[in-house]
Amino acid sequence: MSLITLYNQYISTVNWENGALCDHNVGGSIDLWQININDNLPQINKFRYVLAPDEITRANKYLRASDGDKFIISRGGLRYILSEYLKCAPGEIRFNIAANNKPEIDYPSITKLHFNLSDSADKVLIAIAASPVGIDVELINPKFSYQAILNNNFSPLEAEYINDEDSFKRFFLLWTRKEAILKATGIGLTDHLKLIPSLNGQHVIDGSLLSTVSDWQLKSFEISGDYIATIASNALKNNHRFWNFLP
């Protein structure tokens, strides 16, 4: 058994900067990009233009046009953002699926760049780093019946924390932490979700639960008061930079 440590932290203030100011060089940083779907709908053809044929096919399979539009903007936005780091045209980027089911860049392969994408309602977040990273964002939905999944996915202490006060916000806070670390390690949803600690602080666990031997840092933050997100990284000393995407 290999023990690892999860460091869970809540960031009270996040400053989103103009994406035009980004140097597109992660170096010792982790870059987090925010895309608003509705703001970009008038330019959806610009996003569709850079997609690969299989992505267009996937977008056309959505039953609701709004879901297809969200896919086009999120995937096109990802291509535009990555192209600045990779110094190539957005449409030239090719993706494949790694052994852990995480999407990765297949071409160009000059630079090993890691990324992860999450969306909820009108919001898309994309994390970019030089090492494995995971991101999850959720709209704080006061109509969600979280009690139905509480006992199967959260420890007794976590359930107590959620039920104590401000329950919907606390539920989605802890949920994004569990989702972000699962996405970062690439194991997907697991029956051991309640064993993955999500409360603030430092937690030592069996690394086999996450198929990793690395320690991980998880930072959570709010967006506009309606969304909450968590970014997970195994680069514990990296600086986090927050950018607004401008097409």
Q: Mind explaining what this structure looks like?
A:
- The chain has one domain: Alpha-Beta Complex (Ribosomal Protein L22, Chain A).
- The longest helix has 22 residues, at 65-86.
- The protein is globular and about 50 Å long.
- By secondary structure, it is α/β, with parallel strands linked by helices.
- It has helices at 37-40, 44-49, 53-60, 65-86, 147-153, 156-164, 167-185; strands at 3-10, 17-18, 29-36, 94-97, 103-107, 114-120, 123-129, 133-139, 201-206, 216-223, 227-233, 239-244.
- The mean pLDDT is 93.
- It is 30% helix and 30% strand.
- The protein starts with a strand and ends with a strand.
- The strands form 3 sheets. The protein has a 5-stranded mixed sheet with strand order 8-11-10-1-9. The chain has a 5-stranded mixed sheet with strand order 2-12-3-7-6.
Q: Looking at the structure, what is the overall shape?
A: globular
Spans of 5+ residues with little confidence (pLDDT < 50)?
none
| Through-space gap between termini | 47 Å
Number of discrete helical segments: 7
How many domains? The number is 1
The chain-level structural class is alpha/beta
Please write the string of helix (H) and strand (E) elements. EEEHHHHEEEEEHHHEEEE
Q: Indicate the percent of residues in helices.
A: 25-40%
At CATH level 2, the architecture is Alpha-Beta Complex
State mean pLDDT (0 to 100 scale): 93
Strand order of the largest sheet: 8-11-10-1-9
| Alpha carbon gyration radius | 18 Å
CATH third-level topology: Ribosomal Protein L22, Chain A
